[in-house]
């Protein structure tokens, strides 16, 4: 099927322009038309075939070139002819697919799009001329790059985009539509450093696709001054063994790398953690997963580390194992440095009140790891009181349950009630739960699914052990 095209004169379009059908050297149909509704009615054959043909996603490289390098895609279906087979295309969506839609706002309005390509050693450039023909003979012309909005004027609440920024990102093969969708405000900033940021990323070993992915995921990077990015690079290089690993981290955590606040604090915190003989790999993971913990004043992080160290030693931990214990805590929960030291003290104080020995507390802390700082004594009190009542167990039995399943300290009262109720609904007894409290670590949906799965194989959990439920997916299969 030949593509239906339209080539308007590069002078002003006139409403009394006659209709002509011509052929280009490339075989495409050329139609010159006026804005008269009767004329458009005569072109209604576009309603099905050409509409469906033109509405396929198009790219500048795939658009055919007519004689003179001019191509204009036209969809001219009057509102009266619209049907389920010819849905109107919104202006923005129409532009994204390389086509033009017809809108009707009190009078017939036809939008024409003229695409001019310039092929050279530079990136392909595209000029768009949008002409609006209506019964009032309105004339307007707008020149836009291929990544610009299709509407002839930006919405009143939308800021004007920085065309230099948009063009620079486009040359780097960044998906402009993705940036517009999630971080449109970046494109409206007056001062950006697109090429400088791309150069720095390339210097660190990023290939062109990686540069595009990073800027699509975190376009705010182009707002960072080059000297600040260079300083950040030097900081991260101090904990990364090579630039390949550094680029791997940046691709996964671009927002962390481009958090360029308080360089002095970041450097001081890195040196402090290195002085504790923590591995650079752990420090790098902390910087990537919890960058704000490095922007904090050094004194705050020192207080948290001191509390962790003293807690471990007070509970009977070995001095020689402090570094290994800290590395485990930090690697398993990088946000631990953001937790106030008071949280640790309050949680441990509450657990001591429950009669736990130092050895039992050390076991709990090692199991709960950094999350113990997130526990609230009042919430734990309500949860434990409910468990003690529903299981009808003694204080010692409750302690055993917590040691066996420390995760229950995290759950809110409504969550615990829901999990117990789900087990009771399928006939599980409280004695079974007491024998296998780890079943409470699973959500009700997972428990029910596994029970039904086991039932399909003839296993009745009501008369057997719940241990089979708490296994992994692989074990269950």
UniProtKB/TrEMBL annotation:
PANTHER family assigned: TRANSCRIPTION TERMINATION FACTOR 2, MITOCHONDRIAL, TRANSCRIPTION TERMINATION FACTOR, MITOCHONDRIAL
Name of this protein: Mitochondrial transcription termination factor 2
Residues in the signal sequence: none
Family recorded in the similarity comment: Belongs to the mTERF family.
SMART domains tied to this protein: Mterf
UniProt cross-references to Pfam families, sorted A to Z: mTERF
Molecular function terms, GO-annotated: nucleic acid binding
Keyword Transit peptide tagged: yes
Keywords assigned: Transit peptide
Keyword Transit peptide carried by entry: yes
GO BP terms: termination of mitochondrial transcription
GO (cellular component) term, any one: mitochondrial matrix
Species whose genome carries this gene: Pleuronectes platessa (European plaice)
